[in-house]
Amino acid sequence: MKIFDCPNCSSPLFFENTKCVSCGSSLGFDPDELLFKSVSDDWSGYCKNHELGLCNWLISAGSKNTFCPACALNRKVPNASDGENFEKWKPLETAKHRLVYQLLKLGLPLVPKSEADEGLAFDFLGSDNDDNKMTGHANGVVTIILTEADSVHREQLRKQMSEAYRTLLGHFRHEIGHYYWPLLFKYKNLDRFRFFFGDERKDYGASLEQHYATGAPKNWNENFITAYASSHPWEDWAETWAHYLHLMDTLETAGSLGLSLKPEIAKPSYLEMVKAQDPYTINDFKIIFDASISLTCAANSLNRSMGLPDIYPFIIADTVYEKLNFIHEILKDYRQRNT
Ligand SMILES: [Zn+2]
Ligand SMILES: [Zn+2]
Ligand SMILES: [Zn+2]
What we know:
The protein is α/β, with parallel strands linked by helices. It is 40% helix and 10% strand.
């Protein structure tokens, strides 16, 4: 995520801000132009979820909508009177807004399910939900179980599942990968998909059952970004897609900060990064990937000096690089056809 600036005094603004700390003006995020604007006559004001402290996006004056494009995707949300679940919804909404920003940057369609069958909806459910649903995606509905927002619970699950990384933003990025799969491959590119990820017609239920019973193959890291990605081509897709979004977002941040890296050692090799650029404007994925390697090595080293775990605890094998490059190409192709 880039750093924004105040339309009034040009001071730095961060994505979740509603006020400029320098000049005090009230601000909101304009999802059409992807920048901050003053809350003024040109705008009817904030999205309805602003009242609940959940959103800082703006609705234009002429619009009939009461919710912004991110909040309009919500289908089931906890009641404001349901204290515990409501508090858990907040961090999920923060993560979801960051996801939606990135989908807008990538030029992907965002149609609420209430407007079209093939649209998208989010259900944020308590763990005691009637349908016994779990975090996941089905037919355009992304369900997130609210207890994921409890960091202790999430860490327990992370250990239990032997995952290197488990975050709210990571969940959103994974599940949205499932949602966009039919859009990108239903009528096109299916052969290419199968070349990189395997045949998705393989029995999904049986594959997952087998994965949980016997675990991933010993050498999974030669072909997959995570052990779970080895369970089925769809999960490989969603996991690799999530990593593509991780790389693009962190590099956008680095680019907007004007970061460059020049380690003081004789052979800095892959640690050296010339000034980072906005990855959404880069055609050649190799440039994005090389910068990401330097950046994650630097960020991991910074975290270690704070006694924290690595922010990017993954090693990307050559085969995984090819899959990421394929995702970059597919998205470029999609934008070309749809703009
Ligand atoms: Zn200002
Ligand atoms: Zn909103
Ligand atoms: Zn999945």
